[in-house]
């Protein structure tokens, strides 16, 4: 069993010396960076060394590799964990034995950002990109926000920073209800596509959490005009100021004239004026994300034209359509997509830039429950948008294995099985991917687990295949 966050736990007035268990993740490392900036002594541990770990060390954190009881300092005041850790984690267990306060990462973040004018970005998909667009736009406008994002912002090289401005922008996680902890001033809801039903138990409860999140915003709410779940949530809101964005004719911020060949371009209508932009990233979904970010910025009172110009500078985040290498004309990308809607968006974006080449998807299902619930939907979008698919085994994350739930649940649902292969062994999967690829193809790994770690194997297999 993984650790279930107790969001009712009292958050200490002062975190003091903080120990992060699993400090290398994008979310945890971002919070640790802020804690260091606030003057806290920071220690931590992670299963492997990484660029995030080294960056924190350079800022003064003491970090051990591996999880062991001896890595927990004797004089620690607060321990921060994630829901991805298992109950038997030795550092977690020792903290409980000592009576040291143990906080979920969202509670630690709530402590660090307390009293700030908070822009919280929530939604089943598009959070990290939308958050990055808002941050990039605010920086271009001279607002100098503080922020914590779920991925490294390409042009900044970090996922968090402390700014001098009054605004704090945060990617708010709805997966376990922790987005309800924040004292939000401005709430952006990108969409309310059904997900995380393992936590909420029902679609009704999932959508109610978004209603609660939005209605608690002090200033205003920005929400999709197009997403069916968002529409249901909007109808239940009691908030006095709600801005909508999307392609709907009645949207407060209406996006239209979307051209998806290469970097996406589009137009936005707002209060009788039209503004045009071309992003540095591809994909129709990113035009929609940009409209949501635009709605936040104009809602805050910034100039519309300057806001859109700033948003257009956004160059992406780590693990979102991220190019890792090209071998003999075969490009290898990685993307965080782990829900059928996200997979469709990522592959659609790839289609706009692949030209005459083919798309080869390497899909790692995430969570046993999600694989069981959405195997058919994953198969449908992979078969529709990719030319060839390699399915890996399930990345269980916080869940225990379920009998009979493997990646084969997805591959067996393809209507044309000749275009899919379920290969559990990563090296065999990398070799198979290299054999079927040819010049001009895009290989794209998909998943929010550790599938990015297969990318060097794929690049190596491509090199060996070309040398053979």
From TrEMBL:
Function field: Cell wall formation.
Pathway: Cell wall biogenesis; peptidoglycan biosynthesis
Family: Belongs to the MurCDEF family.
GO molecular function terms listed in the Swiss-Prot or TrEMBL record: ligase activity
NCBIfam families the UniProt entry points to: murC
Compartments, as annotated in UniProt: Cytoplasm
Predominant place of localization: cytoplasm
InterPro entries (alphabetical): Mur-like_cat_sf (IPR036565), Mur_ligase_C (IPR004101), Mur_ligase_C_dom_sf (IPR036615), Mur_ligase_cen (IPR013221), Mur_ligase_N (IPR000713), MurCDEF_pg_biosynth (IPR050061), UDP-N-AcMur_Ala_ligase_MurC (IPR005758)
Positions of ATP binding: 123-129
Record's protein name: UDP-N-acetylmuramate--L-alanine ligase
Mur ligase C-terminal domain boundaries: 319-449
Pfam families: Mur_ligase, Mur_ligase_C, Mur_ligase_M
Keywords, in A-Z order: ATP-binding, Cell cycle, Cell division, Cell shape, Cell wall biogenesis/degradation, Cytoplasm, Ligase, Nucleotide-binding, Peptidoglycan synthesis
Enzyme class name: ligase
Annotated source species: Agromyces tropicus
Reaction catalysed by this enzyme: UDP-N-acetyl-alpha-D-muramate + L-alanine + ATP = UDP-N-acetyl-alpha-D-muramoyl-L-alanine + ADP + phosphate + H(+)
Its EC number(s): 6.3.2.8
Domain Mur ligase central: 121-296
Boundaries of every Mur ligase N-terminal catalytic domain copy: 18-116
């Amino acid at each position: 069993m993984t650790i279930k966050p107790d969001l009712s736990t009292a958050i200490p007035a002062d975190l003091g010396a903080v120990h992060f268990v699993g400090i290398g993740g994008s979310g945890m490392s971002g919070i640790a960076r802020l804690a260091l900036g606030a003057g806290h002594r920071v220690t931590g541990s992670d299963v492997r060394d990484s660029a995030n770990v080294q960056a924190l060390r350079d800022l003064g954190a003491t970090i051990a590799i591996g999880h062991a009881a001896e890595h927990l300092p004797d004089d620690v005041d607060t321990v921060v964990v994630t829901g991805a850790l298992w109950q038997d984690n030795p550092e977690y267990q020792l903290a409980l034995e000592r009576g040291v306060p143990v906080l979920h990462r969202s509670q630690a973040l709530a402590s660090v950002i307390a009293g700030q004018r908070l822009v919280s970005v929530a939604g089943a998909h598009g959070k990290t990109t939308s958050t990055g667009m808002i941050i990039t736009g605010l920086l271009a406008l001279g607002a100098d926000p503080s922020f914590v994002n779920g991925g490294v912002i390409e042009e900044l090289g970090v996922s968090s920073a402390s700014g001098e401005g009054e605004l704090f922008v945060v990617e708010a996680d709805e997966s376990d209800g922790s987005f309800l902890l924040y004292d939000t001033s401005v709430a952006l809801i990108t969409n309310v596509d059904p997900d995380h039903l393992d936590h909420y138990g029902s679609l009704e409860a999932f959508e109610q959490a978004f209603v609660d999140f939005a209605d608690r915003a002090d200033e205003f709410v920005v929400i999709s005009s197009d997403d069916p779940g968002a529409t249901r949530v909007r109808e239940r809101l009691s908030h006095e100021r709600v801005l909508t964005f999307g392609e709907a004719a009645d949207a407060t911020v209406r996006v239209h004239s979307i051209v998806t060949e290469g970097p996406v371009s589009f137009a936005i209508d707002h209060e009788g004026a039209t503004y045009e932009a071309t992003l540095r990233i591809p994909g129709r979904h990113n035009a929609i994300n940009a409209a949501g970010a635009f709605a936040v910025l104009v809602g805050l009172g910034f100039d519309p034209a300057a806001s859109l110009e700033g948003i257009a500078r956004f160059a992406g985040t780590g693990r979102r359509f991220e190019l890792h290498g090209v071998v003999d004309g075969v490009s290898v990308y990685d993307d965080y997509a782990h829900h059928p809607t996200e997979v469709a968006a990522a592959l659609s974006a790839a289609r706009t830039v692949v030209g005459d080449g083919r798309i080869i998807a390497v899909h790692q299902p995430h969570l046993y429950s999600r694989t069981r619930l959405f195997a058919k939907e994953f198969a449908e979008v992979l078969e529709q948008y990719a030319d060839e698919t390699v399915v890996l085994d399930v990345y269980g994350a916080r869940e225990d294995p379920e009998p009979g739930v493997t990646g084969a649940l997805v591959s067996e649902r393809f209507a044309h099985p000749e275009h899919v292969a379920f290969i559990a062994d990563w090296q065999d999967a990398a070799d198979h991917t290299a054999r079927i690829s040819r010049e001009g193809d895009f290989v794209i790994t998909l998943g929010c687990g550790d599938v990015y770690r297969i990318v060097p194997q794929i690049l190596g297999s491509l090199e060996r295949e070309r040398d053979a």
